[in-house]
Specification:
The complex is a heterodimer. Chain A is built from 13 helices and no strands. Chain A has helices at 2-11, 14-36, 68-104, 106-121, 124-131, 140-149, 153-166, 170-177, 182-190, 195-218, 230-237, 241-244, 247-274. The two termini of chain A are 27 Å apart. In chain B, the strands form four sheets. An eight-stranded mixed sheet of chain B has the order 6-7-8-3-9-10-12-11, sandwiched between helices. In chain B, strands 18-19-20-15-21-22-24-23 form an eight-stranded mixed sheet, with helices on both faces. The model of chain B has no long low-confidence stretch (mean pLDDT 86). Chain B: Belongs to the ABC transporter superfamily.
Chain lengths: 280, 676
């Protein structure tokens, strides 16, 4: 079984195992952690402003008395959610556009690739910065769509060029000569044979999207109060406050670094295991 | 005098896979030793071990002596002095054997200068002389060309020139002609013979083609599962084989010089070197197997020059058993009789044309020429008939196939399938027509989606055409092609090449088509497997009343399988007719050359017959010659008087039905006529 061989090869990489354990631990922390905390993220403790980590508030409190533990985990939940959604959408879009452009060729290919190139040259950060304040506050889903729509282009070019060679494979020709409709051939024979590329790409996209989200939120363009994400927390706790009240900055920033690190470990390991030809 | 002596050579790769398990042979001056075996038998690994070219991590034991000096364990410096000087090698793929950034002349001169103290000019002059020796026209000019500017045959000649540059004592040839077309193969083998005459070197010829060995070798070593199983002179091996494997191998080859008779398949597949059976490795496939065969692996017992590794070889010798006695040929399925006069046409090609534009320029593409891939061909196939389309690579066979399979309007001419013109089909009709027209591809590795289990692969056409009881039909199909229905859950990579080809055939049969297009269905398979697949195709045709369009380059397989044959050259049909007539009295000079180029697995016949060797390479289809496309290479034209020769250049011959023939036409102004 190919899948078994791949699984064994993946599991033989210590970095994948470490990454997987790390990501699972962080996921557990983000979603199970709040159950154990004494405060919810919306509660404000008016008796403790900017109190350092202690027995009552494990990770300290913010300027307005929010429990740092609850708020940070809430922020991480949002960041993870955004990261995975963006990765899913952008990899899916890349696979679709690339496979259709490569498979059909001709005019459709020209149009799709022209659009891809256009998106590639647009300054994505500026555009998101301009558009997102105009969106209704709290509509972080729109923000996900915006992030995703600017992160699929390069993969889709790779997918297209791989499809060009897959299109000439004999099993694809065989399917065509059997009278299988083209869209079915794409989903049944082309995309599954690109799966190793897509899996690697999706993993890498998760960390990319989390960083992108954090960066935009830091500047106030992404997730906006009262909602929190790791980006807004780092923004609030950063700057001059970071020196006198380090817990406001260190916990969200540290979790961000760990999260991205573990996901990248998985991605690198998957690349080595699924794509033995690459030399990275 | 023995030059190269190999004793008990073994090669073990990392992970304990024993690729070679005790090979011994000697090669003397001017002697040709043929090493024969199927893929995975360890024949190439043996030669790489002799050259010291195996990757690090491969453990080599035993002894390799060149002029009495032990090569194994010798210091790299010392080996380098000998490699390329007293022992050199010719590889299968001449494209990857040359550095693309230096000219051919420079690379040969470099080989000269590494081992001889000569000036640069001297070496360059020698390079030109060598190129002339191997028959490259205008060697002064061609020496300045780069490898990609050479054709495959030319490159292999240059490779030979480089190998003999330093007058080696031993020349190891690893499948030197496998990648080449037959007419080019005949040229290269001729060059190899010249090279041997010039240098007097001993040659180790490694190949899977028993015909090539029959014509060239003095002695033969047959390898199976990493071990020699039989050894002897070429006559002994071909006329009195004593090991059942050799007997089966010889009996399973379709032969050009024999009428349509049943082929003898060897059951099963060669064992993987990681999982060898306990006793004789051939025992699981051997019809002469007795219980004692599983006890221990038989050693190669030497009696003089002759060696056989089989416990029953003495019995075979005494009873004078032959291959056909040992391997019973399965009975053919009786074919329903056909009325020759009432032919029902299933496929008709009428003056089909397919040209490709040749574009140049990055931003503004402009047309700089036209590739005449298929240039007006016509033929038809009747129900229950097999038409073979034969020709060398680049003659337009594959393009023709694609034009038929696409079922779209042709660029020029018409494709009529089951009475319907493919240019006038609606989408629905096209899909309906696809039920009746299916294809089997050449490469069984590439033809099956590696991500799908076999059951799904077979179910795909059924589901697409709304078939009910898909599971039942899948099992039925697997059984039809001789596979176990329980295989449906496995993935393609768990099957051997022959089994995969059977799956490919099962998929083509799924919708019960009437016409199957076979694109070189057996050329990627080993001989012993090939016979089984050919027999299967024959049986299926008889049982299901199929028609085949069979595309191939191997004329002996075609003779075996086809009823009618069409020979293509540069996008045109040069000869077409029944197999009996075309093979019996080939009329076109190209057909004659093609047939004489095929080596026969019979040493005496192969050495005594006269060969027509064609000059030069196939012209580019972008600039086809005027008049008759074959006139630039035609051996017959050279013998004609001047006015008749001019006609070949000026006027293009159409396919004309020959006198005295029922169904036989040739496109030649001066066809060969029957002597009756």
């Amino acid at each position: 079984m190919r899948s078994k061989v791949v699984l064994r090869r993946v599991m033989a990489k210590p970095q994948v195992v470490i990454g997987l354990i790390g990501v699972l631990a962080l996921l557990a922390l983000a979603y199970l952690g709040p159950l154990f905390g004494q405060y919810t993220w919306e509660q404000k403790d008016f008796t403790a402003f900017r109190s350092p980590p202690g027995a009552d508030h494990w990770w300290g409190t913010t300027q307005i008395g929010q429990d740092m533990f609850a708020v940070t985990l809430r922020g991480m939940q949002k960041s993870i959610l955004i990261g995975f959604l963006v990765a899913l959408i952008s990899t899916g879009l890349a696979a679709l556009v690339g496979a259709f452009a490569g498979y059909f060729g001709g005019k459709l290919d020209k149009i799709l690739m022209w659009g891809t190139d256009l998106l590639l040259v647009l300054p994505s950060f500026l555009i998101i910065a301009v558009i997102s304040p105009r969106l209704e506050s709290g509509s972080w889903l729109m923000f996900v769509v915006l992030l995703a729509s600017f992160s699929w282009m390069i993969t889709s070019r790779v997918v297209r060029s791989m499809t060009l060679s897959l299109r000439e494979r004999e099993y694809v020709l065989a399917a065509r000569y059997m009278g299988i409709p083209d869209w079915k051939i794409i989903f049944r024979h082309v995309v599954p044979n690109l799966s190793s590329l897509l899996i690697i790409d999706a993993t890498m996209n998760v960390s990319g999207a989390i960083i992108g989200e954090t960066a935009l939120s830091y500047f106030g363009f992404g997730v906006r109060p009262p909602d929190v994400s790791l980006g807004t927390l780092i923004s609030a706790g950063g700057g001059s406050t970071a020196i006198s009240y380090p817990w406001l900055f260190l916990f969200p920033a540290g979790l961000l670094v760990l999260l991205v690190l573990f996901i990248n470990l998985i991605g690198d390991g998957l690349r080595d295991a699924l794509d033995p030809g690459s030399t990275s | 005098m023995t030059i190269l002596e190999v004793n008990d050579l073994t090669v073990t790769f990392r992970g304990g896979v024993k690729a070679v398990r005790g090979v011994s042979y000697q090669v003397g001056r001017g002697e040709v030793l043929g090493i024969v075996g199927e893929s995975g038998s360890g024949k190439s690994v043996t030669s790489l071990a002799v050259m010291g070219l195996l990757p690090a991590g491969a453990q080599v034991t035993g002894s390799v002596k060149l002029h009495g000096h032990e090569l194994l364990g010798m210091r790299e410096q010392e080996i380098l002095k000998r490699r390329g000087k007293s022992i050199s090698m010719i590889f299968q793929d001449p494209l990857s054997a040359f550095t693309p950034v230096y000219t051919i002349g420079d690379q040969i001169a470099e080989a000269v200068r590494v081992h001889q103290k000569v000036s640069k000019e001297q070496a360059a002059r020698q390079a030109v002389e060598l190129l002339e020796l191997v028959g490259i026209p205008h060697p002064e000019v061609r020496a300045k060309a780069f490898p990609h500017e050479f054709s495959g045959g030319m490159r292999q000649r240059a490779m030979i020139a480089m190998a003999i540059a330093n007058d080696p004592d031993v020349l190891i040839c690893d499948e030197p002609t496998t990648a080449l077309d037959v007419t080019i193969q005949a040229q290269v083998l001729e060059v190899l013979k010249t090279a041997q005459k010039e240098t007097g070197a001993g040659i180790v010829m490694i190949t899977h083609d028993l015909g090539v060995v029959a014509g060239l070798a003095d002695r033969v070593l047959v390898m199976y599962a990493g071990k020699p199983v039989e050894q002897g002179t070429v006559e002994e091996i071909y006329y009195e084989p004593r090991m059942p494997y050799t007997m089966g191998l010889l009996a399973s080859i379709p032969r050009l010089d024999q009428e349509n008779q049943r082929l003898v398949p060897i059951e099963g597949a060669p064992p993987s070197p990681a999982a060898l059976p306990p006793g004789c490795p051939f025992a699981p496939r051997c019809p002469l197997k007795v219980d004692a065969c599983d006890d221990a692996e038989p050693e190669l017992v030497q009696v003089g020059e002759r060696g056989v590794a089989c416990i029953r070889s003495h019995e075979i010798d005494v009873k004078r058993l032959r291959g056909v006695d040992v391997f019973p040929a399965p009975e053919p399925v009786a074919e329903p009789p056909r009325d020759a006069r009432r032919r029902e046409t299933v496929l008709e090609l009428d003056n089909l044309v397919r040209h490709y534009p040749l574009m140049k320029g990055a931003v503004f593409k402009r047309r700089v020429g036209t590739v005449h891939a298929v240039d007006g061909i016509s033929f038809d196939i009747a129900r229950g008939e097999t038409l073979a389309l034969v020709g060398e690579s680049g003659c337009g066979k594959t393009t023709t196939l694609q034009q038929i399979m696409q079922l779209e309007a042709a660029q020029g001419g018409r494709v009529v399938v089951f009475g319907k013109d493919s240019g006038e089909l609606t989408k629905r009709e096209r899909k309906e027509l696809r039920r009746d027209l299916q294809i089997v591809f050449q490469d069984p590795m590439a033809a099956l989606d590696p991500r799908m289990p076999v059951g799904d692969i077979l179910a795909e056409p059924l589901r697409a055409h709304g078939h009910k009881d898909v599971q039942g039909r899948v099992a039925e199909l697997l059984e039809l092609v001789g596979l176990d229905p329980s295989y449906a859950e496995r993935y393609p990579q768990h099957f051997s090449g022959g089994q995969r080809q059977r799956i490919g055939i099962a998929r083509a049969l799924a919708l019960e088509p009437k016409l199957i297009v076979l694109d070189e269905p057996v050329s990627a398979l080993d001989v012993s497997i090939q016979a089984g697949v050919i027999n299967l195709l024959e049986d299926l045709k008889a049982r299901l009343g199929l028609s085949y369009l069979f595309v191939a380059h191997d004329l002996s397989v075609v003779r075996h399988l086809a009823d009618r044959v069409a020979v293509m050259y540069l996008g045109k049909i040069v000869e077409i007719g029944t197999v009996a007539e075309v093979y019996g009295t080939p009329a076109h000079p190209y057909t004659r050359a093609l047939m004489s180029a095929i080596p026969l697995p019979d040493p005496e016949l192969e050495r005594s017959r006269r060969r027509i060797i064609l000059e030069g390479d196939l012209p580019s289809p972008a600039q086809p010659p005027s008049g008759c496309r074959f006139h630039t290479r035609c051996p017959k034209r050279a013998l004609l008087p001047e006015p008749e020769r001019a006609r070949c250049v000026a006027e293009e011959p159409p396919v004309v039905r020959l006198a005295h023939a029922d169904d036989h036409g040739a496109a030649c102004h001066y066809p060969e006529v029957r002597n009756s």
